[in-house]
Amino acid sequence: MAFPWANVFILIMGGLSLVSGLLGLIGGSPDWALALDVHRISGFALVALLLWKVRNVLTPLTNTGLWKRRPTLLLGSSALFLLLLAALIMGIVWSHAGYFAYLGFSGVSWHIYLSLLLAPFVAWHAATHSWTLKPRFWAERRSFLRLAGLGVAGLALWRAGELAAGVLALPGEDRRFTGSYERSSFAGNAFPTTSWLNDDPDPVDGDKWRLNVTGLVQRDLSLVLDDLAHSPENTTAVLDCTGGWHSTQEWKGILLRDVLQSAGVEPGAGSITVRSVTGYQRRFSLGEAGGYLLATHVGGEPISHGHGSPVRLVAPGKRGFEWVKWVESIHVNDTGKWWQSPFPLT
Fold this sequence. Notes:
13 strands, alpha+beta, about 45% helix, Sulfite Oxidase, Chain A, domain 2
């Protein structure tokens, strides 16, 4: 094997790229930009690594005798190589060519799905080739230098790509720090309609709709739409969807802080849970939730059913899956916001 160290570095850079990419999906504020920069650097480091690895990969794949002796190993290696190549190509094309979709999924969604599918193959490949590494591998100076050089190569390739996008005026030059592309800003309900886990309830009757506020509060509330109209607030906020688009809109509704003040939050409260009519829910700290909006209008129009009518949460600085649609209840908890999965599972 020409480059046994490359197997471990694939695991390191692949793991770093996966973790930083997931962190980037969680955060929609510029504070999370560093995670996505690390994701891009580690991704391009994998591209650089393939320049060393590709001949070592292709040679055994053309060996018919090896296919007879170790078909499982070669099938796994082939799947790893093809998935890694497809994930990298999809990410690079998305970053420079602009928004595109295939079979109903955006390019960045394909990049994410391929990367998640790749993860077990990377771990398996590293485990099956662990025998090629000497025990003193990490004590060797050249191991550190190789890893550092790989990081520098990833940084250089990433910045070269960004420079090329600017010089050539490629669509990728205009993407947001999250990698998302602008769609239908300041156009009312015209921006794309998407839902996490494909939530699609029947239209909610506004006349029968109630917002129930419960939990650690001095008084339970059951509000109707007219109650929310008594103190209208306006805010401009960016909805940044993990599907690869973002849209800036003017939202109108009532501050979540005002609703909680009306209910009277009890001492000891640690977070709130905002729940949809579908059962979908997300949890937020009291501090951050105070600046959120329960919106009834977007761009001067009543929010459409697809966008969460009659009321949706507007959570600036959060990714789109945190902007709960079809809100029906708010529960004040005695535990912190971290008592939930990073991404909704139901």
